[in-house]
Design brief:
The protein is an all-alpha fold. It is built from 26 helices and no strands.
Length: 508
């Protein structure tokens, strides 16, 4: 059986993108209170001088991003005109920033091409982004933003130690910078150290006056299983209405999530409604994901009614809700292109590829892509073993299963491993061994009271029984259908329906 996807609690943890994207998406536009720094820690004078001396795309980008955050747009007009008039350069995000400086577009919708390099060897290949960032750092070794961008590129290439070194240098250079703090927090969550992420935010100077940092503190505390430090200040800031609805959207969403998990659904509903007045992609995704739990009904809004940048995660959730698997798949690919270090879009895209479409080659490529940035993440290896077993690559499947550390993984992983041994046994012609392994997987799912895992194990067991003379497929389908009455999950009805159709064709 494949890996699962929708089994982890979602929180409004900060997005991590490169600096240009963060500027373009408006997270640095608000004037923060005293003590909170959102500016790139570099004097515009030197950036202007460097641009005038070099007049290249990279130096133009440095000047444009710095001018946008500082508010001195006039300083970047020449550089912006240069970027806009350089059609041969493939820099869509920078071109969008340049148009904003020139006033040609008040609002842009940056597009991300789904042209992911899914080769598993990409960590060993040269990275032009890393090379460019290191080249810039030779000119600006004290630029915290460049160090954080370098960390972002390292993390996507599966180089966590190098990424952490760059993150810590950036923090030492700009310990109060919003972009640096939120990016660093997301990095430490990525490497499974949410306690470090939380400490960074709560120790930051004047973070309790910045809605973006307050939202991060509350959300990261929930990931770290800690009590947030700033709930009272967060509600006071919301009540003061000193910031616009977009600047307060993540904070409202984070507080709504906290209230919901504390059992206060009425208060949570009001906060989620407020987060949707002018959401960003993160708060919209949170509302779309948690809405059925809070209200007990499907969401009463459509993602497309919010004209926001990069709504890919929310689009994926919405498509899943209506069983539009194709839209969900392509939205998950765009989500992955936007957050290439994240395991969540990889889990979803690869699950859809392997389970719904049974495109094991595509699923294998996605899982290997995810393992580059998340080499210790056991769930991805479960999916990879399933793909190998499904395509007759038995040795590779056994190798992946042997690497999975079951005690340290999510609860259902042990049952999934047992089921995949059952799949391998069936495909190797050993029916009795296959039945024993699948039976053990079902019992393990019962022990942890996981109906979804039990249903999946039964469905894939029944699939293998289809080619056996004394097939148990009909009995297993009936048991899976009974289990499905109390199992949660987007894909249960699809799996049951497809299995029933296959059994019907077999018996016809």
């Amino acid at each position: 059986m494949p890996q699962f996807w929708q089994d982890r609690e979602r929180n409004v943890i900060p997005r991590w993108r490169d600096f240009l994207s963060t500027v373009l998406l408006g997270e640095l536009n608000v004037n923060p209170p005293s003590g909170v720094d959102i500016r790139p820690p570099r004097d515009l004078t030197s950036v202007i001088a460097d641009w005038e001396q070099n007049r290249s795309i990279s130096f133009a980008g440095d000047l444009i991003s710095a001018a946008l955050v500082s508010g001195n747009l006039a300083a970047a007009r020449d550089a912006s005109e240069f970027v806009v008039s350089s059609p041969g350069e493939d820099v869509p995000q920078l071109r969008a920033l340049a148009r904003r400086v020139l006033g040609n577009e008040l609002r842009t919708q940056p597009k991300i091409a789904v042209n992911l390099d899914l080769s598993c060897g990409r960590a060993l290949q040269g990275s032009p982004e890393i090379s460019l960032a290191r080249k810039r750092l030779r000119n600006y070794p004290s630029d915290a933003v460049l160090w954080m961008d370098l960390a972002y590129f390292y993390a996507g290439r599966g180089l966590p130690k190098k990424a952490e070194r760059a993150v810590r240098i950036a923090l030492n250079l700009a310990p109060g910078n919003r972009f640096i703090l939120r990016s660093a927090a997301r990095f430490f969550i990525h490497i499974d150290r949410p306690d470090v992420a939380h400490d960074l935010i709560r120790r930051a100077p004047a973070y309790k006056g910045d809605p973006w940092l307050l939202a991060a503190e509350i959300s990261v505390a929930q990931v770290a299983r800690r009590t947030p430090w700033s709930v009272r200040e967060s509600f006071s800031l919301l009540a003061a209405e000193k910031f616009g609805p977009h600047q307060l959207s993540e904070l409202s969403s984070a507080l709504g999530t906290l209230e919901f998990h504390s059992g206060n659904s009425n208060k949570a509903k009001k906060l989620f409604r407020r987060s949707l007045i002018q959401p960003n992609d993160n708060s919209l995704a949170q509302a779309r994901r948690i809405w059925p739990d809070v209200w007990g009904t499907p969401a009463d809004f459509n993602v497309d009614q919010f004209k926001i940048d990069r709504p890919f995660e929310a689009q994926a959730y919405e498509a899943l809700g209506r069983e539009d698997w194709v839209t969900a798949f392509f939205a998950s690919l765009e989500w992955l292109a936007d957050q290439p270090f994240s395991s969540e879009p990889v889990r979803l895209a690869s699950y859809l590829a392997s389970t719904v479409f049974e495109d094991f080659e595509r699923a294998e490529a996605l899982l290997n892509f995810g393992l580059v940035a998340n080499p210790e993440y056991q769930v991805l290896r479960v999916g990879l073993a399933f793909c190998y077993a499904s395509t007759g690559r038995r040795n590779e499947a056994y190798s992946e299963l042997a690497q999975i550390k079951v005690p340290g993984a999510e609860d259902w992983v042990g049952a999934a491993v047992e089921a995949n041994y059952g799949l391998l046994a069936f495909r190797g012609g050993n029916v009795e061994a296959g039945r024993k392994h699948y039976g053990a997987a079902v019992r393990m799912a019962d022990l942890i009271e996981d109906k979804r895992t039990k249903l999946s194990a039964l469905v894939y067991w029944a699939n293998e029984e289809l080619i056996v003379p004394d097939s148990n497929s009909v009995r297993l389908l009936a048991e899976a259908q009974e289990t499905g009455k109390s199992a949660l999950g987007f894909f249960n009805s699809f799996l049951l329906k497809r299995l029933a159709e296959r059994i019907s064709r077999k018996l016809a």
